Each structure stands twice: as C-alpha cells, then as structure tokens.
C-alpha cells in the first residue's frame, strides 16, 4: 500500500512538471485557443446540447429563470435530497428549490430534460448604477440533440404557463374596489386592493347539490375553454346573474366562485363612476382570471335612459345663444348610461382582456332592462331562492356538525323540518342566525328551536295571507257598492223629476 501512494505522488509530480513546462512554453492565448478547439470537438461528438438560463440578463431580471425555479419546485420536494425554501410576497405557500449544483430530471413529451442549478461567486464589480448580486445563479438545461426540435420551444412555453398558474395559485387572492371618483393612485392604477380572505366554498354554500354541481361544471368548462373560444371567435368571458330575495347567499356565491377558480374579485361601485370613459378605463385596468362584480345593479344608478322624453312645448328662445337642450345634455354626459354599461359587458371594450367573469346581483330582476340580462351578457341566470331542505342539511353540517346519517331519515324532527321548511319561505341567512345562537346546545335541542321558529314563521305567513285576502274582499265589496250607488241615486233623481212634471201639469 505504501508503494502505491509513493507511485501516485511521483505521477502527480511528473504531471505538475509537464504542466509548468506547458505554461512556460505556450502563451495563454494559445492555451485558450486549444481549449476552445477541444470544446468544439467534444460538442461535435457529444449527444447532448446545453442551455444556460441566468438569473440576470445584462442588467434586467430574467423572467425565465424565476419561472424555471417555480416550475422545478413541484418535483424538487420529492426528487432532490437538499432543498432551499422560500415564501413570496402575498403568498400562502412555501416554495421548494434546488440548492447549489443539485440536479433534477424532468420529462416532456417522452424526452428527458436534466436541470442543474449553479451558484458561483461573482467577481469584484466595477462602478455600476445598479449593483449586481454577489452570487451568480443560473440553471443549465441538458437535452439530447435529437430531442431539441421536439421539445423546444414548446417545453419552455409549458414552463412559463405552469409557473404562471402556480404563482397565481400560491398567491393570496385580492379584492379590488375602484378609487373614489375614478382617480389614479401613485402607480396609475384606479383600483385599491385588500387580501381576499372569504372562507365561502361550494362545499359550505347552502344550495341544492345538483344546482351547485351544474354551476361548478359551467365554471370549469369556462376556465378550460380557451381553445373553444378562440375557435368560435367569441371573447373569453362569461356572465352570471344572481337574483333573489336579500339573504339568500348571493355574496357567498361570488366568494365561492372566486375560491373555486382562484380568481381575483373587482367589486365595481357604479356610484363612484362619473362617465362612460371612466368605466372603460376601469375595465382596461383589470387583469385576466378575474371576476368583475356589480352588486344590486338595479339600485346603483338610474339606467332607465331608454324612455323617450316627451317633446317640450315651444317657448321663447333663451337670452344666450346656447341650444335649449345644452344644459340637460351636459348633465347627462357626466353620468354613465345604459349604453355605456352594455358596451362595458359585451361591447368592443369587453374584449380588451381574456378569461373574465361578469357577475351582476339584484333583488328584483324585473327592474332590469332586457338588453342587460340577455344571453351573451348574462349567460347564466341563477335564482338564489329561499332555503330548501337540502340547503338546510348543509347549514346543519356547517354550524352543528350534523353529518349525513347521524339522524335517522325516519326521525320525527327531521320529517317535520322537511315539511315546514318549504312553506316557511325563510332565507339561509335567517336559518344561519338561529343555528349560530344555538350552536353550543345539543344538536336535537338546536334543531327543535329551529323547528319552532319555522312554525312561527308559517303561522305569521298564514295570518298575513288571510288578512290580505280579507282586505281584498273588503275592497271588492266597496267597489261593488260604489258601482251600485249611482243606480240608486239615478232612481231618486227620476222620482223627483216625475213629481216636478206632475206639479207643472197641475199648474197649467
């Protein structure tokens, strides 16, 4: 063994001797040219090609580097042995990454792609207006030459799209509202945002399961329908009209839609928008994968501008040279019109973005203009009705943790609830309030309390209905008497006229 180490040391000494001779005989330029030629020869005979993706391209940040870092984080937590952890701004999830000189193998369309993360110390910098990081980071992609036309650039496009989707999924959703008067903030953005933390989901939404599945399927088809909308020449947008009495869960439905799709919400306050041009600017500043909401649209602004004004009677010309209708037209130009709102939802300006959902809510659908709720603007009308027994079971599970099958279907209490819930015409909000107050009691006691509330509500509705029917009968009776009273007065008048005629004859 001692002889082996002695021979190895001798060989290393001989190698160092010849290396010193080469450095002394051959100049650096010649050595660099020889290394360059060797690399070219090696690449010609190599079956792989390499691509370097640096973190900084010149003085600009390389977006592809961060996309690759986020893309590889999906598999790094499983395949890599040493990982780096990070958490981005407005993000609710941790991101795994490759450490220095670690490798990861990925497959795309049957081809193998090997990624290596290289981190080196940057040399001392000269003066620069933008100091660079001390470490130089880059990813090296190695693929076979025969696979290059197969996976490039489709593989890189796939990485960018996947990273965008992961970034959107990891970030907390935002709730936007338009600034007062449509004014721009310091960044030229007319929307103000706060983190969206609404916990409503389709699992907790009080609605019949069959209707929820129908809505969820429609939302999924829309989110995955990019190719369909491009093929048919339609703008990638969809409209939902939520209508029904107050307290039926319209706002909870919007939150469930946003949480299901992972979209941001833009809550548009029409009373803060002064002109149609401001409305268009707000639309242009919304992002894709978002839900634009106008709540209580029938109460926001007066959109009944289809009514033709009666022509005013002729009058003397005014003292100044301004036309008669100039003042009214000037006032009308300072408000949004029905035409502006229609173009906002389904005009040319609605196509300035993609993958947007418009949601209108109203308590009185009959007050809306038919052009506003037609197909193409509001594609799906969702009636948020009173609480049904299927919705009641969801509320019982949410507030009382009553699981399916916990109470027997033949249970007298459940049977009475099923019979009275439809007749009570109570909203899910009212049912939730009763269950919240009794959530600390026994489940059977809480449901018994809810049953009493429902029965009381049914009795009140019956009394109200009976009183209203009595009032209608009384009104009909009064109308009948009013119709009969003129006949009696006519008879009295006829008798009086007859007496007068007889008196006149007697006088003659």
Automatic annotation (TrEMBL):
It catalyses: ATP + H2O = ADP + phosphate + H(+). Keywords: Magnesium. Pfam families: AAA, AAA_assoc, AAA_lid_At3g28540. SUPFAM superfamilies: P-loop containing nucleoside triphosphate hydrolases. Its cofactor is Mg(2+). The keyword Magnesium applies. The keyword Transmembrane helix does not apply. Residues 236-388 form the AAA+ ATPase domain. One of its GO terms (molecular function) is ATP binding. One of its GO terms (biological process) is response to stress. Residues 459-468, 478-490, 497-508 have a biased composition (Basic and acidic residues). Residues 459-508 are annotated as: Disordered. Belongs to the AAA ATPase family. BCS1 subfamily. This is AAA+ ATPase domain-containing protein. It comes from Canna indica.
